[in-house]
Predict the 3D structure of the following.
Amino acid sequence: MIRLAEDWKDYSVIATGDGYKLERWGEIVLLRPDPQVIWAAQRDLFAEPGLCAVYHRSERGGGSWEYRRPLPESWVIGYRDLRFKVKPMGFKHTGLFPEQAVHWDRTAELIRASAGAGNRPKILNLFAYTGAASVAMAKAGAEVVHVDAAKGMVERAGENARLSSLTGGIRYIVDDCKKFVLRELRRGNRYDGIVMDPPSYGRGPGGEMWKIETELFPFVRLCAELLKDDALFFLINSYTTGLQPTVLKNILSLALPGRRGTIEAYEVGLPTQEGIALPCGAGGIYVR
């Protein structure tokens, strides 16, 4: 099963092929590599009228942007009542993953159903990057604790919150996620929900190493201790190639024994103007 982020107006995948995806971000068209696109392009994507910039991978690793026409340093696109800063960055990124709108909508729905009458669910967002999920959950009525080891990404999360007219509701933490979770356990803090988007590989601010194949399950089990007995959800997103949705379902099932609720796992993707679905990772969620 694949869940598609189908409700965008400011973003779309125009075409795909030969290892690339052609995208519209507001009025700006970008061409970026995508490892899932192993089929042939149906037309010359590099000759697309209006193409603004192309990201070229380097054989030595990394890559660089080729600008075909002048671009602003950054610009803003919207999704529903949310606003996000977009900026061409290193390693082909723009600071936003549009397919994650699937998860923004799901968690916001669960939070809105629980919030009200003075109740603001407390949600922990780990490996939280530039904060799109944090903004969506805070707008829905949650108190969000946003944790990421990269100071620049946490600062960008604050920008996205301000763009979305949020003046509170998010607490920003620059820290190694595992160290933060251990401190929260010692402090006795508990949460109504947890969201995490763990990297395949990573290094914390103190040199801490992360490898998803060996670290994810014990970390999820550790985080499960932070959930309240009546917690709303636990969501895991993954972009790790080869990590099937069923793996996430199994991890949640084994890490959350005895909890009443449902556990689902699925691919996450984007529709394209060609009429096909572009897979963009996997998601797994426990819902009370």
About this structure: Helices lie at 101-114, 132-139, 151-163, 177-187, 212-224, 245-255. The longest helix spans residues 101-114. Residues 209 and 215 are 9 Å apart (CA to CA).
